[in-house]
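Below is a filled-in request sheet from our internal design queue. Each sheet records the structural input a requester submitted and the sequence that came back. We keep these sheets so that new team members can see what a complete request looks like end to end.

REQUESTER: design group, bay 2
PRIORITY: normal
MODE: inverse folding
CHAIN LENGTH: 275
BACKBONE (tokenized):
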């Protein structure tokens, strides 16, 4: 069954579908709070005008990583590793009036039935909000929490990413730190267009200690043109977005072998820079 048009999808419908997907399953690993490889990101949704003359449309808000960090130029969600003590403390504030978990209609059900999973959820929401405040100056009180998405396992980096879906409606100006070059808004309507997908053929320089020669790999990607040029969404963030699109709209990207090929190159600095 095809979901509603993205412009007509209410916030409550997104929350209901996320809750339906997560119902009855253990969502987080038991050691998530102690794991050095666990990260949380904030999957940001909101209405945005691409041009001053256009009407607002439902968009996914991504950050473009600066040239000072690993994976420079990639599109991603704001987020990062858990700071156990700090984020545990912050998580206790999230259920207070006006804070995101207090306004989430399913928090009481989670806290009553899921026990430790509810504590882990609060911890990960705290991590995603703290990191978003640090990276883009996002106001935590202006975020409406909609629910978690399934975790994304990054085998190459020995990490697990936990996406938390949030809605921003009022904040229009952000204070970007050194990790972020700019914010990129991609309309959901564009993400649902199969013509915007391609096969990203990457030549990759060897990682430190990873061998002498270059490697080549093919990856599905999404191409989106802005006034800054063309952006390419691929990798873990691409996969997280695809999970969301399938859940909300029953959309799947075309098969990789049917897509046109675009070329790219990952230099050594892609893997080795600090940040």
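RETURNED SEQUENCE:
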């Amino acid at each position: 069954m095809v979901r509603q048009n993205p412009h007509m999808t209410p916030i409550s419908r997104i929350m209901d579908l996320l809750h339906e997907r997560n119902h009855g399953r253990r969502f987080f690993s038991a050691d998530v709070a102690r794991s050095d490889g666990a990260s949380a990101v904030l999957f940001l949704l909101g209405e945005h005008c691409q041009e001053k003359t256009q009407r607002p449309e439902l968009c996914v808000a991504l950050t473009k990583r600066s040239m000072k960090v690993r994976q420079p130029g990639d599109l991603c969600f704001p987020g990062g590793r858990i700071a156990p003590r700090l984020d545990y403390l912050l998580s206790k504030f999230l259920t207070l009036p006006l804070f995101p978990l207090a306004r989430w209609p399913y928090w009481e059900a989670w806290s009553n039935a899921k026990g430790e999973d509810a504590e882990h959820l609060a911890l990960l929401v705290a991590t995603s909000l703290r990191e978003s405040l640090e990276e883009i100056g996002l106001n935590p009180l202006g975020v409406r929490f909609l629910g978690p998405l399934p975790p994304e396992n990054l085998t190459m980096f020995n990490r697990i990413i936990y996406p938390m879906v949030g809605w921003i409606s009022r904040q229009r100006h952000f204070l970007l730190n050194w990790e972020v070059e700019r914010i990129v808004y991609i309309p959901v309507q564009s993400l649902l267009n199969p013509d915007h997908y391609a096969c990203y053929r990457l030549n990759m320089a060897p990682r430190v200690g990873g061998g002498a020669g270059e490697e080549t790999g093919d990856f599905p990607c999404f191409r989106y043109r802005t006034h800054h040029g063309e952006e390419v969404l691929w990798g873990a963030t691409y996969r997280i977005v695809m999970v969301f699109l399938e859940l909300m709209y029953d959309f799947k990207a075309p098969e990789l072998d049917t897509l046109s090929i675009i070329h790219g190159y990952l230099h050594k600095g892609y893997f080795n820079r600090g940040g």
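SHEET NOTES:
- The longest strand covers residues 215-226.
- The chain has one domain: 6-272.
FILED BY: M.R.
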